[in-house]
Specification:
Belongs to the DXR family. Its cofactor is Mg(2+); Mn(2+). InterPro entries: DXP_reductoisomerase, DXP_reductoisomerase_C, DXP_reductoisomerase_N, DXPR_C, DXPR_C_sf, NAD(P)-bd_dom_sf. It catalyses: 2-C-methyl-D-erythritol 4-phosphate + NADP(+) = 1-deoxy-D-xylulose 5-phosphate + NADPH + H(+). The longest helix is centred in the last third of the chain and has 22 residues, at 363-384. The chain has a 7-stranded parallel sheet, with helices on both faces. A 5-stranded mixed sheet has the order 11-10-8-9-12, covered by helices on one side. It has 2 domains: 2-146, Rossmann fold (3-Layer(aba) Sandwich); 151-262 and 287-384, RNA polymerase sigma factor, region 2, helix turn helix motif (Rna Polymerase Sigma Factor, Chain: A). With 386 residues, it is α/β, with parallel strands linked by helices. Helix 5 (105-113) runs parallel beside helix 6 (123-140) and helix 10 packs across helix 14. It has helices at 12-23, 39-49, 62-68, 80-86, 105-113, 123-140, 149-158, 183-186, 191-194, 204-211, 214-227, 265-273, 304-315, 319-335, 343-354, 363-384, and strands at 2-7, 28-35, 53-56, 75-78, 94-97, 118-120, 144-146, 166-173, 234-238, 244-250, 255-259, 296-297. It is globular and about 60 Å long. Bound molecules: nicotinamide-adenine-dinucleotide and magnesium ion. Nicotinamide-adenine-dinucleotide (NAD) binds next to helix 1 and helix 6.
Length: 386
């Protein structure tokens, strides 16, 4: 029985993880549930799953959660600090990082230091500080098990290949709702259009990132750290059907791919169950319904975020941390209709260029770079508001 801490249990990944756990009651139990603002759903989940601990990030909602769970054995905590403590509990066997954004970094560092395997959905952690996380995980002997579908695909292709060098990883991208759009068209797109992803139903931030190809950029950086590949060994291909989840090319030219319907429950289940494959009842891929799978070149001229991510990875140091912070501010401003769609990549580039470069950042440097880049980004938004 693996006892799981789910950070971000009320989100898209968190709720799907609970569905996976519900299908495998003899394999998994829920030890910790956490959410930032959604007190109602957190309470419902806690009453259903009876974890030992829950954390509500927003301190203003603590009293509500505490009152609703009084009379149960469940311990209620609040605040960001509590996240860093619950992941270290002896009773936690694996931590699923299903929270969004930079907020994942510090709890993940604490969990690794406490020797907990990480099922990593929170790609921002590796984008911000992959150079710190991966050596720390190796030192602690802790596996980082990817949940992101592309990285899960590559990870699944690499099972049994540990002695064989990788020549290239090929990340597939759906292209999002604006595939084929010109920059003139992108200048006009609205928040509502950007929130409609053709193949996946996900949280708001990653949905906007998918529309702007920032998500693929973040995934390029995530792949570089997870699989120890250079920027030149990572390729992105647009594959609108989202059936081939990604590919690995070995030094003999052979390519392995992992396929399946677009359903995050499979990569979640593979990470939680690793090294075992468990049964799953979800629908199967049927080639009759997909007579053609197509592939096309990604358009980095139009979707500049993807190019910026490669650049940040090439430059190293704290560049990807600066980019990530800028992007979190940019997405929030776009969602509040303060800036347009194309302004997001302008803002990202501005913060990469204006932020102070640190070649070999410590954890404190990452924390500081994140803060400074957010400040720069917020000033930019204030000046360039629509
Ligand atoms: P979501 O917005 O649906 O859920 C986010 C969760 O994190 C919620 O439970 C929320 O309460 C919590 N949260 C938000 N801000 C927080 C903060 N500051 N501190 C602590 N908790 C906070 O997001 P999601 O779509 O489930 O994505 C979660 C992570 O998984 C992201 O890093 C995303 O890139 C990654 N991911 C998601 C998908 C997907 O299909 N949704 C696929 C691949 C990777
Ligand atoms: Mg992905």
């Amino acid at each position: 029985m693996k006892r799981i801490a789910i950070l971000g249990s009320t989100g898209s990944i968190g709720t799907q993880a609970l569905e996976v756990i519900a299908e495998h009651p003899s394999e998994f139990s829920v030890e910790v549930l956490t959410a930032q603002n959604q007190a109602d759903l957190l309470i419902t989940q806690a009453l259903a799953w009876k974890p030992a601990h829950v954390v509500i990030g927003n301190a203003a909602k603590y009293a509500e959660v505490k009152a609703a769970l009084s009379g149960t054995e469940i311990q209620v905590h609040s605040g960001a600090q509590a996240l860093e403590e619950v992941v270290t509990l002896d009773s936690v066997d694996i931590v699923l990082t299903a929270l969004v954004g930079y907020a994942g970094l510090l709890p993940t560092v604490k969990a690794i230091k406490a020797g907990k395997p990480i099922a990593l959905a929170n790609k921002e952690t590796l984008v911000v500080a992959g150079a710190l996380i991966m050596p720390l995980a190796r030192e602690m002997g802790v596996p980082i098990l990817p949940v992101d579908s592309e990285h899960s695909a590559i990870f699944q292709c690499l099972v049994g290949e540990s002695h064989n060098p990788i020549e290239k990883v090929i990340l597939t991208a759906s292209g999002g709702p604006f595939r084929g759009f010109s920059r003139e068209q992108l200048a006009q797109v609205t928040r509502a259009q950007a929130l409609k992803h053709p193949n996946w139903s996900m949280g708001a931030k990653i949905t906007i990132d998918s529309a702007s190809l920032m998500n693929k950029g973040l995934e390029v950086i995530e792949a570089a750290w997870l699989f120890d590949v250079k920027p030149s060994e990572i390729e992105v291909v647009v594959h609108p059907q989202s059936i081939v989840h990604s590919l690995v090319q070995f030094t003999d030219g052979s390519i392995k791919a992992q396929l399946g319907l677009p359903d995050m429950k499979l990569p979640i289940q593979f990470a939680l169950g690793y090294p075992n494959r468990m049964n799953a009842s979800f629908p199967r891929f049927d080639f009759r319904q997909y007579p053609s799978l197509t592939f096309e070149q990604a358009d980095t001229q139009t979707f500049r975020n993807l190019g910026l991510a490669f650049q940040a990875l090439d430059n190293g140091g704290n560049q990807a941390c600066l980019l990530n912070a800028a992007n979190e501010v940019a997405v929030a401003a776009f969602l509040e209709d303060q800036i347009g769609f194309l302004a997001m990549s302008d803002l990202n580039e501005y913060c990469m260029n204006q932020g102070t470069f640190v070649a070999n950042p410590t954890l404190e440097d990452y924390i500081e770079s994140d803060k400074l880049s957010r400040e720069l980004a917020q000033e930019w938004v204030n000046k360039n508001r629509k």
